[in-house]
Amino acid sequence: MIYLDNAATSFPKPKTVVEAVVRQMETIGGNPGRSEHQGGLAASRIMYDTRQKLARLLGIEDPLRVIFTLNATEALNLAIKGALKPGDHVITTSMEHNSVLRPLETLKKQSIETSLLKADKTGLVSLSDVRQALQPNTKMLVITHCSNVTGSIQPVEEMVKLAREHQLLSLVDASQSTGSIPYHIEKMNPDLLAAPGHKALLGPQGTGFLYMKPGVVLQELKQGGTGSESENLQQPLTVPDRYESGTQNAHGLAGLKAGIEFLLKETVEAVREHEKKHILQLKEGLSSIKGIRLYGPESIDQQGSVILFAIRDLDQTQLNYMLDQLYGVSARAGLHCAPLAHQTIGTFPVGAIRFSPGYFTTKEEIDQALSAVNQLASDF
Amino acid sequence: MIYLDNAATSFPKPKTVVEAVVRQMETIGGNPGRSEHQGGLAASRIMYDTRQKLARLLGIEDPLRVIFTLNATEALNLAIKGALKPGDHVITTSMEHNSVLRPLETLKKQSIETSLLKADKTGLVSLSDVRQALQPNTKMLVITHCSNVTGSIQPVEEMVKLAREHQLLSLVDASQSTGSIPYHIEKMNPDLLAAPGHKALLGPQGTGFLYMKPGVVLQELKQGGTGSESENLQQPLTVPDRYESGTQNAHGLAGLKAGIEFLLKETVEAVREHEKKHILQLKEGLSSIKGIRLYGPESIDQQGSVILFAIRDLDQTQLNYMLDQLYGVSARAGLHCAPLAHQTIGTFPVGAIRFSPGYFTTKEEIDQALSAVNQLASDF
Question: Would you call A106 and B224 a contact, using CB atoms and an 8 Å cutoff?
Answer without folding.
Answer: no
